Each structure stands twice: as C-alpha cells, then as structure tokens.
Amino acid sequence: MSQNHTDYTSRFAIDPVAAAAMGTDELRHNFHIEDLFQPGRISLTYTHYDRMIVGGAVPASKPLRLEAIKPTGTKGFLDRREMIAVNIGGSGTIEAGGQSFTLQARDMLYLGMGTSDVSFASTSDNEPAKFYLLSAPAHQAHPNRLIRIGDARRVDLGSKDGCNERSIFQFIHADGAKTCQLVVGMTQLAPGSVWNTMPCHVHDRRMEAYLYFDLADTTRVFHFLGEPDETRHIVMRNEEAVLSPGWSIHSGAGTSNYAFIWAMAGDNVDYTDVDPVAMEELR
C-alpha cells in the first residue's frame, strides 16, 4: 500500500507453536524485513508486536515528509506515538516541530509524542542519508533530543577467544533521554568477532527488532529466533531487519564482523529485565 512517497505493510503477531511449524519462506514472510532503504521513499512495517513500526527513509533530491498511515488511526504520525531515527548513511537533516537537527552517520534523534511537521533531507544526493525509523505508542510527551554516537553510553563486552568482542552503544538509558517505551542501541563487533548476544536470553515483556548493517555484499548473518528449545534461523543481508517476539531468542553469527541496531518496546525500559537462557537449554 502507498500514500504519496510512503509505503507500508503490516505484520500480524505469530505464536511460538505456529512459528515452530514454519519453513524458510514462512519464517521470512513473518519475521524478515527487506527493502527498507529505497531512494526517495519512506518504507514502513507496522507490526502487531507492541504496535512497533520499523521503517527506513532515504531522502534524495527532495525532502521526505513523514505522514500518518492508516494503521496509526491518527491525523499526524506522532499524535499518539514517539519515534527514534538513526542515521546509517551520509549526513542528513531532520526538521521536526520547528527545530532542525543534523545527523551524521550513527547519530540518533528522539522525537516525542505530538511532534508535528517531520521531514527528512540528505546533505548530498551522491551520499544520501539513510534514516532507520522506530516508533511505538506513547502516553506522555518527552522532549526531542539529538544523541550523537560519541555521547552514547559505551559498554565493551566479550572476548577474542569467544569470537564476540564487541562494543555496545546505549542511546537510551536511565540516565539519558527519557522515552515512554522505546529503548534503542547499537552494537559493533570487532574484527575477528562474529557472535552477538550469546549466551542468549528472552524478555517476555518487550519485543525487539534488529537491523544488521555494515555488511559486505557477500557477508551474511545467520539470525537465530524461536523458543530456546525450538530454534530456527533466518539468513540476513546488509541493511535488513528482523522481528523478535517476546517469547523468542534473538542472536546471530556472521561470516564477518558487522554492526546492528537493536530496538525494544513493551512494558518497561529496564535493560536487566531479561530471562537468561543457559547454553544447555538451546536446541
């Protein structure tokens, strides 16, 4: 479906019993999101997991205006929602509520409920911005805030021996910008490391979405999902996203190092509210 320069699709929620019976095509149809970053378009996926919207905006020669879509049921896109935009492309600008924000690669902008007149622009047509968009319902208006990658809280984890040496950048945390539901961060794996989020966990009170990027054309990430004792996998290419219901693990291993943006929405924003999964429980 389309509305001017905006395309959107919907994804219904899948229970673990149904997911366990799915083959490759069904898994990809229900959990995998491709073609997020189309030049001159805004591409959105409205999910029935905590009503999260996952999307991409790639402004070309003209700015792209954020418009409401039918599933939100409101006149303006952010009338009852909050949104985070992370730039993974060239330099770009977001106009929002009469303010102008310039985002370099890996900078993030939070937009609170009620923000109007949102548009996206690229500084250069030759190297356009690529805005990764994440939106969830909101119950309170928080201030708009630009968070540069250098200002994110950094946590270094893993080891070379475990092939999971990585840096986690927490854009949203208890001492930083306030949100209603959204929690967003980025993980960068060091050269020689390929595993993320292993040992894995689930968090039944929050869904999650991953965007894998910084992958070469021939690089792939094998994303693991499903209940801990009934796992499945989806093969991911550069700049593709995957949905993770609250009952599912979410972990991956690549053929080279890579980066990914993780985003959650649900009952709370507590990073520690997870149920760890022991390695011997995985099947």
CATH superfamily: Jelly Rolls
Oligomer class? single chain
How do the strands of the widest beta sheet line up side by side?
1-2-4-5-12-7-10-13
Supply the CATH class: Mainly Beta
Per DSSP E runs of 2 or more residues, the count of β-strands stands at 25
Tell me what the CATH architecture is: Sandwich
Largest sheet: 8 strands, mixed
User: What share of the residues does DSSP label as strand, in percent?
Assistant: 35-45%
CATH topology, by name, is: Jelly Rolls
Write down the secondary-structure element order. EEHHEEEEEEEEEEEEEEEEEEEEEEE
Distance between the termini: 39 Å
How many structural domains can be distinguished in the coordinates?
1
Structural class: mainly beta
Q: Helix count?
A: 2
Shape descriptor reads globular
Model regions low in confidence, pLDDT < 50 over at least 5 residues = none
Descriptive account of the structure:
Strand 14 and strand 15 form a beta hairpin. The radius of gyration is 18 Å and the shape is globular. It has a single domain (2-281), classed as Jelly Rolls (Sandwich). It has an eight-stranded mixed sheet, with no helix packed on it. It has a seven-stranded antiparallel sheet with strand order 3-22-19-24-16-15-14. It has helices at 16-20, 24-31; strands spanning 2-3, 6-11, 32-33, 42-47, 53-57, 64-65, 81-87, 92-96, 99-103, 108-111, 119-122, 131-137, 145-147, 153-157, 166-170, 183-189, 195-196, 201-202, 206-213, 221-227, 230-236, 240-244, 251-254, 259-266, 275-276. The protein has 283 residues and is mainly β.
